[in-house]
Design brief:
Its EC number is 1.7.2.1. The chain has 21 helices and 31 strands. By secondary structure, the chain is α+β, with helices and mostly antiparallel strands. It has four domains: 141 residues; 180 residues, no CATH class; 109 residues, Immunoglobulin-like, CATH 2.60.40.420; 249 residues, Cupredoxins -  blue copper proteins (Immunoglobulin-like). Helix 3 packs parallel to helix 11 and helix 10 packs parallel to helix 13.
Length: 930
C-alpha cells in the first residue's frame, strides 16, 4: 500500500471517494516540494537538542531541555505534519476541509507555544510556561478537530481506525500537559512523583504511542515495500481499546499513589502493544529491513519495549523520580531519536515527489553509513546504561551523539539531492537511476559498516579507560609479596568475600603456607562501589552485584588488604590473610604485609607524603591561580520554584597556587554551586552520580526525613531531593556518604542562602566558604593529582585551610570595592573539622547575622556617623549607636554574614583569626579604592 500524497488523477468510482476539484488537485500538487513550516521546524528542534547536549554543563535544566526539544519539539511537530498527511492519504477527502493555510496557522501556533515552553522552564518564567502550554494544547485540540472533520466527511473505507488512533492521541497531550503544569506548583514529594508518572505516561504512551501505533499499521509495510498482513486492520481495532483502558488504569493508579494499579496498567499496555505488533511481524518476516529507515524504526520499537519494561520495574520499586536519566536515555535516545529519523528518511523524499527515481535518489542519501550509525547508537546506548566507568560513559556518549547528529547533514543533503533530481527530470534529462523501478537496491546494512561501528565504540572505550584506568580496574601494581622459600603445595584455597557497608565478610581467612589463594569478591552494597587490594594485586571497583576474582599464586606469609576507596580503609574495611604451617625462612618474606603495605597506589587514599609540614605549599611568591573562584553573589531569582541538577564528579582542581588534588565535586567545582531563594521557596534538586563511587546529598536548608532523599546512590544513578525553605540563613549542603569527613574534605560541599525577610540591598555581596584540604601527596599538575588523605582527616591535620576551595586565591586576585561602599560578606564554615573566626583586618562590622539571628543591626537599619546601626526611626540597636563587631565566630556547618563600610582606600586582609589557619591559606585581600 502506497501512502504518498494522492495523485492528481481522479480516483476510480470503485474507491468510493468524490472526485477532487481542480482546486484540490492544485493544492495537492503544491504539497509536493519544499514547505518551510512542514520541513524546517523538526530540523531546528533536533539541531537545538544537539547543541544543548554539547554545552549541557552550562545550560539550566539541560536534561529537561534535551528531552523536550526532541519530544515536544521535533516529534510533536512531525506528528502534526504526518498525521494530517496520512489522514488525507487514507480518507481522500477534499483539501478544502483543512486548507494548507489553516495547517500553516496551526503549525505556527504550535511553534510559538513550544518555543515559549522551551524558554520559560529554564528561565523559570512560569507565566511563559503556562502561556506556551495553553498555545500547544490549543493547537493540538484544533488539530484533533480537523482530523475528526475529515473522518466525518469521508466515505466508508479501509483503515479509518488509524484516524481514531490520532483522535485519542490528540486528547492525551492536553491532559499530559496539565499534569506537567501541576508539577510546578511546589507540591509534596509524594504528589510530585505521582504527577510525574502520569505526565510521562500520558504523553509518551498516549500522544506519541497511539500516533505511532496508528501510523505504522500501514506505513511499516509501505516502507518495507511489501504487502501488509491481512489481519492488520482487525488487529489495530482490537488493540485500541486495550491501549486506552491501560492508559486510564495507569494514570488512575499513578494519581492515587497505588503502585500495583499503575504497574497493572503498564502491563496491560504492553500486552496491547504486543497484540498490535503481530501486524508488523508478517511484513518484516517477508522482507526484513534493508535500509536505514526501516532498521531505525525497528530499533526504536525495540527500545520502546525496553522503556516500558524498565518503567514497570521502576514504578514497582517507587524509583521513577530517581531514574529519570535512565528513562530519558531509553525513551529519547533509543526510541524517539531513532523513530523520527527512520520515518523521515522514508517520508521526506516521498513528500518532495518527482517520481520513483527521484524518491530513490533522496532515500539513497539517507542510507549513508546506515549500519555504522545504527551500531554506534544502539550498542553505545547499551554501554551508557551499563555500569561502566564514568569516563567510558562520557566518551561513548559523545560518539552516540555524533552518530545521532549525523542525521541532520544527511537530511539536508537528501533534500538537495531530491531537488536537483527533480530539476534534471524537468529539463528532459533521463532519470538519475532508471533501474530503481525494477531492481531491488542492495542492502544498506553492510557487515563492513557494522564492524566499523563496533571498532569506533572500542576506540571510545579504550580512550575512556585510558583517561581513568583506576576506575576500570587497571590501577593495581605488580605483586610486591616476595615468594619465600616455601614449597608450593599445588592446592588452592577458595573463599567468597562479600563487601557491604564498611566491612568485608568474612574479613579474615587462614591459608596453609604454599597454597594458591583465590578470593571471589562480590559487592553486596547497593549504595556504592568497593574493591580489594591484597598482596600487590587489586580488583577493579565493583558496582552492586558485580564480582571479580583476586588471585595470590603462592601464599608465603600473612597479608593485609583493604578497600582502596578513600576513607573505607580508615572506616575498618580491611581484610587479613593468616597462615598455618611451618613459617618461611627468616629474611625471605616471613612478614609479607610489611613488604607490600606501603605500595598501595597513592591515589587511593594511602598517605605517601609523610610529614607534609616539610613541603612549602604556600610561598611568598606563589604561582598564579589558573582559575580563581568569583565570590560575588547574585540576588535571589524571582522564581519561587528552583530546579537544579547537581552532578557528582571526581575531577582534578587547583587547591593552592600550583598545587592540585583529585576533588570530589558537585558540577565540577568545589565548593558546589550556590543556591539562593527566599522563605517559602521550593527547591527541586536532581542529584546525578557521575563518579566512580557512591555519593549522596544533605541539605541543611530543608527539614525532612533523611531516609530516602539523603540516601547514597551508586555511579550512574540519580535521585530527586525536594524541600521547602522555611527558615532564613546560610545553610550548608554536602555529601553525607560515609565516611562523611572524607567526602566533605574532598570538596562535596556548598551553600544555600535563604534571605532574611526585609534584607536590604548593598553595594557588594560576597560569599566565602571556608574548608580544609588534606593532601595525600603534593602534585603540581592535574595529571598527578591524588585523592584526599583520610589518615590526615582522622588526625585533624590539614595541609591547607581555604576560602572557596583555593588557598590564598584572593591575595593575588583581590576583591575590589570603593570607599563608602556597603559590603556584605556571607561566610559558611564547611569544615569538616576546623572552626573559624572571620575577621577583616582594619575593618569593623556594623551588622552581624549569625545562624538565623541578628547579633548586630537588622533589616531596615542604616549606618550612623559612628558606625552603629540605627533602626526604628533612629533608635540605635546597641542603645548608644557606637557598638560594633570584630569577628564572626562559626563552628563547622554554621554560617552568617557581616556588613561594613570602609572609609579609607587601602588593602584590608580577610582572614580566619585562628591564625594558624590564616597561614594555611584562609586569607584574602579586600582592596578599597577611592
Amino acid at each position: 500500500m502506497n501512502l504518498t500524497p494522492p495523485s492528481p488523477t481522479p480516483p476510480s468510482p470503485s474507491q468510493g471517494a468524490p472526485s477532487p476539484t481542480p482546486r484540490d488537485r492544485g493544492a495537492r500538487a503544491q504539497a509536493r516540494g519544499i514547505w518551510p513550516l512542514r520541513d524546517h521546524p523538526a530540523l531546528l528542534w533536533m539541531l537545538l537538542a544537539v547543541v544543548v547536549a554539547l554545552v549541557h554543563q552550562w545550560v539550566p535544566d539541560a536534561t529537561w531541555l534535551m528531552v523536550h526539544l526532541v519530544l515536544l519539539g521535533a516529534l510533536t511537530h512531525s506528528i502534526f505534519v504526518w498525521s494530517t498527511h496520512f489522514a488525507q492519504a487514507l480518507l481522500k477527502t477534499p483539501d478544502a476541509l483543512d486548507s494548507r493555510s489553516n495547517q500553516s496557522r496551526r503549525l505556527t501556533l504550535l511553534l510559538v507555544g513550544t518555543a515559549a515552553v522551551m524558554v520559560g522552564v529554564p528561565s523559570t518564567q512560569w507565566w511563559l510556561v503556562v502561556t506556551g502550554a495553553v498555545l500547544v494544547s490549543s493547537a493540538v485540540i484544533w488539530h484533533g478537530l480537523m482530523l475528526r472533520r475529515r473522518l466525518v466527511h469521508a466515505l466508508p473505507g479501509r483503515f479509518r481506525i488509524t484516524i481514531r488512533y490520532y483522535l485519542f492521541a490528540a486528547v492525551c497531550l492536553p491532559v499530559g500537559a496539565a499534569f506537567g503544569a501541576a508539577l510546578a506548583l511546589g507540591l509534596s514529594q509524594s504528589w510530585h512523583d505521582r504527577l510525574l508518572v502520569a505526565h510521562m505516561m500520558t504523553n509518551l504512551l498516549g500522544w506519541v504511542g497511539l500516533t505511532v501505533t496508528g501510523t505504522l499499521i500501514t506505513l511499516w509495510p509501505t516502507m518495507l515495500r511489501t504487502p501488509m498482513d491481512s489481519r492488520a486492520e482487525a488487529l489495530a481495532k482490537q488493540a485500541l481499546p486495550i491501549l486506552l483502558i491501560a492508559l486510564v488504569i495507569t494514570d488512575a493508579g499513578a494519581l492515587a499513589g497505588l503502585r500495583q494499579v499503575t504497574v497493572s496498567g503498564l502491563v496491560l499496555y504492553a500486552a496491547g502493544l504486543a497484540w498490535w505488533a503481530r501486524a508488523l511481524w508478517v511484513p518484516a518476516r517477508r522482507r526484513p529491513p534493508r535500509e536505514f529507515a526501516t532498521a531505525s524504526v525497528a530499533c526504536a520499537l525495540g527500545w520502546l519495549a525496553v522503556g516500558i519494561g524498565t518503567t514497570i520495574l521502576l514504578v514497582a520499586r517507587g524509583q521513577v523520580s530517581d531514574s529519570l536519566g535512565t528513562l530519558a536515555s531509553i525513551f529519547v535516545v533509543g526510541f524517539a531519536a531513532q523513530l523520527l529519523p527512520g520515518a523521515l528518511s522514508y517520508l521526506m523524499p516521498t513528500a518532495l515527489g518527482g517520481g520513483p527515481s527521484v524518491v530513490r535518489a533522496g532515500q539513497k542519501v539517507f542510507n549513508t553509513l546506515a549500519a555504522l550509525r545504527l551500531v554506534i547508537i544502539n550498542v553505545g546506548l547499551i554501554l551508557c546504561l551499563a555500569p561502566v566507568p564514568s569516563l567510558v560513559r562520557v566518551t561513548v556518549s559523545v560518539l552516540v551523539l555524533l552518530a545521532l547528529a549525523a542525521f541532520l547533514p544527511v537530511m539536508i543533503t537528501s533534500i538537495v539531492t531530491s531537488i536537483r533530481a527533480k530539476r534534471a527530470l524537468g529539463g528532459g534529462l533521463p532519470p538519475l537511476d532508471p533501474t530503481a523501478r525494477v531492481e531491488r537496491p542492495p542492502s544498506a546494512l553492510t557487515l563492513a559498516q557494522s564492524v566499523a561501528g563496533t571498532a569506533a565504540l572500542l576506540v571510545a572505550i579504550t580512550v575512556g579507560v585510558g583517561l581513568d584506568p583506576v576506575a576500570a580496574g587497571l590501577g593495581g601494581g605488580a605483586s610486591a609479596v616476595p615468594v619465600a622459600s616455601v614449597t608450593p603445595t599445588g592446592e588452592t584455597t577458595h573463599v567468597e568475600v562479600s563487601a557491604s557497608g564498611m566491612t568485608f565478610t568474612p574479613d579474615t581467612v587462614t591459608v596453609p603456607l604454599g597454597n594458591r589463594l583465590v578470593i571471589d569478591l562480590v559487592n553486596d552494597d547497593p549504595a556504592t562501589t568497593h574493591d580489594l587490594t591484597l598482596g600487590g594485586e587489586k580488583t577493579s571497583r565493583l558496582g552492586y552485584g558485580e564480582h571479580e576474582e583476586l588471585v595470590i599464586d603462592i601464599v608465603s606469609g600473612p597479608i593485609e588488604g583493604w578497600c582502596t576507596i578513600v576513607g573505607h580503609r580508615q572506616a575498618g574495611m580491611t581484610f587479613s590473610v593468616l597462615t598455618q604451617g611451618a613459617p618461611p625462612v627468616a629474611g625471605e618474606g616471613s612478614d609479607a604485609s610489611a613488604d607490600h603495605g606501603d605500595d598501595a597506589p597513592a591515589d587511593h587514599g594511602s598517605d605517601t607524603q609523610g610529614d607534609h609540614s616539610t613541603v612549602p605549599l604556600l610561598t611568598d611568591d606563589p604561582l598564579p591561580v589558573i582559575q580563581p573562584i568569583d565570590p560575588a553573589l547574585q540576588p535571589a531569582p524571582e522564581a519561587t520554584t528552583h530546579r537544579v541538577t547537581l552532578t557528582a564528579q571526581e575531577v582534578p582542581l587547583e587547591v593552592a597556587p600550583g598545587i592540585w588534588q583529585q576533588r570530589w565535586t558537585f558540577n565540577g567545582q568545589a565548593p558546589g554551586p550556590t543556591l539562593r531563594g527566599t522563605v517559602g521557596d521550593v527547591f527541586e534538586i536532581t542529584l546525578v552520580n557521575d563518579g566512580t563511587m557512591g555519593h549522596s546529598i544533605d541539605f541543611h536548608a530543608g527539614a525532612l526525613a533523611p531516609d530516602e532523599p539523603m540516601r547514597t546512590i551508586p555511579p550512574g544513578e540519580s535521585l530527586v531531593y525536594r524541600f521547602t525553605a522555611e527558615r532564613s540563613g546560610i545553610w550548608m549542603y554536602h555529601c553525607s556518604t560515609m565516611p562523611m569527613s572524607s567526602h566533605i574534605a574532598a570538596g562535596m560541599t556548598g551553600a544555600v542562602i535563604i534571605d532574611p525577610p526585609g534584607l536590604p540591598e548593598v553595594d557588594h555581596e560576597l560569599l566565602l566558604v571556608q574548608s580544609e584540604v588534606y593532601l595525600s601527596s603534593v602534585a603540581d599538575n592535574a595529571e598527578e593529582a591524588t585523592e584526599v588523605s583520610a589518615d590526615k582527616i582522622a588526625a585533624e591535620d590539614p595541609d591547607l585551610v581555604v576560602f572557596n576551595g583555593i588557598a590564598n586565591q584572593y591575595d593575588e586576585h583581590t576583591l575590589q570595592v570603593a570607599t563608602g561602599d556597603r559590603v556584605r560578606i556571607w561566610v559558611l564554615d564547611a569544615g569538616p573539622n576546623r572552626l573559624t573566626s572571620f575577621h577583616v583586618v582594619g575593618g569593623q562590622f556594623d551588622t552581624v547575622y549569625q545562624e538565623g539571628r541578628w547579633l548586630l543591626g537588622g533589616p531596615g537599619g542604616a549606618s550612623d556617623a559612628d558606625g552603629g546601626s540605627v533602626v526604628d526611626g533612629g533608635s540605635a540597636v546597641d542603645g548608644e549607636g557606637t557598638g560594633g563587631g570584630q569577628a564572626l565566630g562559626l563552628m563547622p556547618a554554621q554560617g552568617g554574614f557581616v556588613e561594613l563600610v570602609l572609609p579609607e582606600a587601602g588593602h584590608y586582609p580577610l582572614v580566619s583569626h585562628l591564625m594558624i589557619d590564616a597561614e594555611r591559606g584562609a586569607h584574602g585581600i579586600l582592596e578599597v579604592t577611592d
